[in-house]
Amino acid sequence: MTPATPQPRWSLQDISFDHIQKERIVQDQDWFYLLAGASFVESLADLYAHNLVAYYDDNPSAQHWLGREWEPEELQHGRALRAYVLAVWPDFDWEAAYAAFERAYRPLCADGLLGPTKALEMAARCVVETGTSSFYGMIQAASPEPVLRDLAARIRADEVHHYKYFYRYFREYQQHERLSRWRLLRELLRRIAEVDQEDSFLAIKAAYETHNRGQTFSRADFDAYRRRMGNWIQRYYPFEMAVKMLLKPMDLPRLLQRAAVPLLTRKARKVLAN
Ligand SMILES: [Fe+2]
Ligand SMILES: [Fe+2]
């Protein structure tokens, strides 16, 4: 594996925060909650990174990449989204909302959740990066505002890049562990079910309750929010790309892959957009 580059491939200076066309987005509360929530989740990357670095103590190359490239890039996503949110909604108390999110979410992230083997954890990280790259692909496609479109495109490219690294490390471990497709499938399904549940609920709850002092954000509010998102997901979510990325670690025979992709794409569309 090539040595990791210590510098992120773009920086906050590359984003034209001064040219945001606020009138295109400022009235839309769903965009506010979506972007504020994303900025919180990205900003917690240090937590996941430390757990992963400790778990891969047998692998200096992976540790180096995780600590020097992956973590700084994820944290930069958090800072860039925070800057965008504050440029459009300057009254939002980002720090207070993030502190509330962190208090609620950090205790749920025990490091015992990693594994159960090193290859499976790398495969699980591929699931997470599939989720993030398709999420930002959706934002890029759905954004009514050009600076956000540019920012989402940059973040999405980073997430795809992360996927490729995790996938390469997965293959290295898989050469020794030789896990069956069934074992992999079971783990992938388990991780898919976990993605984007508790963290997005708690992130949006923290943004809402900070922004609307004295009000509570319930599960029912979250369900209503997700139903509104269903429209965007249906129109803009890159389902086929996500399914292909999810299937890749299983290394299916080509014919089976060709049959599975359209089937699972339809299924994913049904599940996610409802
Ligand atoms: Fe990210
Ligand atoms: Fe990522």
Automatic annotation (TrEMBL):
Q: Which SUPFAM superfamilies match?
A: Ferritin-like
Gene3D superfamilies in alphabetical order: Ribonucleotide Reductase, subunit A
Q: Which domain of life is it from?
A: Bacteria
User: Which GO MF terms are attached to this record?
Assistant: oxidoreductase activity
Instruction: Spell out the protein name for this chain.
Output: Ferritin
Organism taxonomic ancestry: Bacteria, Pseudomonadati, Pseudomonadota, Acidithiobacillia, Acidithiobacillales
